[in-house]
Structure prediction request, 946 residues.
Amino acid sequence: MTGLALRGLGRRFGTVEAVKDVDLELKEGEFVSLLGPSGCGKTTTLRMIAGFIEPNAGTIELGGKVISSPSASLPPEKRGMSMIFQSYAIWPNMTVFENVAFGLKLRRLGREEIRRRVGEILDIVQLGDLADRYPAELSGGQQQRVALARAVVIRPAVLLLDEPLSNLDANLREEMRFEIRRMHDELKITTVYVTHDQSEAMVTSDRIAVMNKGRIEQVDPPVELYMRPRTRFVASFIGRTNFLEAKRERDVLVFDGFSVPVSALAIPLADGNAVTVSVRPHALDLSAQQPAANGRIVLEGKIARRAFLGDTWNYLFAPAGNGAALIVSAAPHKVIEDGAPAWLTIDPGQLVPIA
Amino acid sequence: MRPLALAEDSSMTSISSSQEAVSGTRSGRISLASRFQPASLLWLALAAVLVVLVVAPISQLVITSFTHPDTGAFTLQNYVEAYGRPRHVAALFNTLKMGAATVVLSLIFAVPVAWACARTDMPGRTFARLAMLGAFITPPYLGAVGWILLAGPNAGWINRIWIELTGATEPLVNIFTFWGLVLVMASNTFFLIFVFTTTAFEMINSEMEDAANILGAGTWKTAAKITFPLIMPAILGGALLTFLISIALFGVPALLSIPARYPVVVMQLSEFFGFPLRVEVAAAYSIPLLLITVALLGLQRLILSRRGYTAVSGKGGERRMVKLGKWRWPMFAYVLLVAAITLFLPFFVLIMAAFSKVWTSGFALSNLTLRNFGYVLFEHSTSQKALIASISLGAASATIGILLALGVAYIVQRKLLPGAGVLAFLCLAPFVIPGIVLAIGFYAAYALPPVALYGTYTLLALAFITRFLPIAFSASASGIRSIHPEMEEAVRILGGGRLTAVRRVVAPLLQRTLAGGWLLIFVPAAQELSTAIFLVGPTTRVVSVVLLDMSEEGRLELLAALGTVLLVIIVAVVALGIRIMGRDFMLRREL
Prediction:
């Protein structure tokens, strides 16, 4: 049995296809992020899972039962899910206790059980002594925790989070990322998390689904996604990268100024003549003197531009000849003057061919 | 934060307990029962109610104007009868002239006071605002009575004192003239210009003026090139509304225009409603009034939506008050003069008359009595009944109107039904219909068989609800707009239906807005005359109509006493509103 499954899910608004052909399966207890730029369809997907929007195509299944299809959708209140909203949506007319107890009261639990479970969850989010406060008397971070407590106290089948941290300041945001992940490790609730912030998705998720223009481009664990992006969009959206164009001549890829055997690449190459590879700025090595090759590729050129960012140097390396310039990250102590000659070392194992 | 730890059993049961809540079926079909939302029926019912309240009377008004009263066939005869006589056409032009003059006088009253209240250090600014509000909430027909007591050609206080002091043989002032009519009209309607202008002044950021100063413009140049253009749309918008309200106002002409021999549209309509009753001619005669209103409101929208106004509606930044110096007190004197003309003088003599045996005898212990109050409250059967009727009608139409508007505003704001925009339009549509024209529509639609509501309170209540529906709708809509939709989605995802969300979250959050909206309807509804005048039956009179009857009978002391009771009720309700909502609660208008 699987937890949550989206099959061929699609949604149009007028002529705009906000979401199309989305396939995604979450195992029970899995934490998956939908990551993408604004307008990529991630929130629409989440709201279809919640039941606030009905799909035009495909189905959503929960525990093997269809809960959404173009012909019929269960309303949100019958899905047994819960959600944390971007605005928190804490009800200002109820105290913290009443907010958290709301879902339990709707389930007609006994007064004692409600008191016990609300007390438990408020202790977990460290709001135990603020139970009688009204939301207006809480800070943003505390409101966020009320939202979290209110959502998980009902033990939902699926927990949905819609950019829950975007209204917090930077420090709190970082803390809450770990908090959300820790709560997930504890409760093992199947979770879908929507965000446009890649580090948020990286910290919290078992897997990340990168969305672009209504489609899922790639679903993988964070490390895999970074190391082996499969599309141009994923490679540039997750971290920064350089793209290099090459022509395939039998078993060798010919770049501007150097060539690499196909077998040396990070992942097997699909068929086709023109090939694009992605190489991360961190995976490149720059030096002021010519290094020994040792089976790697060494290009000669010069520094075309540089910027010091504090924790790294950001160099733009222009190879001699016609090759495209590459961005290289280097440690702060690695200083090369602007315009000075430099040598770039490329490890073929770091070259990732993309579709 | 410390690490999370839930009791073992919670995490174990978490999945199983929630799975029970999911009532989907394995086959992929979802049972009808689980999809049905009881809310849907309510939405349809609301739409039907709007048809009854708005669509039917308006269309019936137009249809009636083209229908032959006996044969029921299509005809233009009603228009020929309505506008065939020079006298009837003259009344229309008289009305427009009166409206224009009222606007001019209102501007003279309102703009300086608005500027003084919003941008200067004049003393007594709060007092000034309350006085202006007072002039607005008091019924215009009572103001007219006050001015009859003050400036009637023979017995009016001003004239008697004038003759006493100077030995003159001719009265100094006469309220039964064109300008008398205009003065009393403006006393009530200038408030809208005051509100619009004050708000505009308050929205102007001093930095906008500073920016002109720093570029080399002097004080006068800044005022002419920056400040004035910024408030101009607001003044124009207020002036247009003032014009529209004054041409459709019934009470003041009813008291003044016949003795002044100045026929106006509303009196002509009233004549068509007399004997013999000619509803179809009245309907035809009122159509131009309706068209003028629609056209001018369209114009107002256009003016207010121009870019000049968007600058004004931006967040008001820091404002520096203009230091008036030695002009502080002269400015205050002007405000006092306006307040005296529009509020203090007429209502002082009115209240004095209420406590007098004979109003012309003035201040004297021997003339003092409470008899008038005893009579109108306990003995005069019509006035007591009318008082109760007015208050009940006001309360009922405010309650029903707000509930209805809330429902519609909710549908519209949450886009629950396709075509919700039409519902919103219907709620706002009565705004363009003058009260007296609306009354003709209601008469045409519901007074006669088969509906036969003539002579019932129901007819009055329906008309009042419709008349004030735009106020109710804009109050409700702005209230709902202030509630984030996620507030309700949070209820639904936790397992509550839409109605639960409305009951537990939306309604509690709207309490204050709704209370304010309720008062905004109750105050005008309890004193409404224009809509009531054609719809009251012999046994269903309301206070405003009884007051008019009393003036025709010449019983001014009784009229004053009943008027004073009405005033006390209005002032008490408004004071309550100010306590709940703050001083400016009557000033914030969406429209």
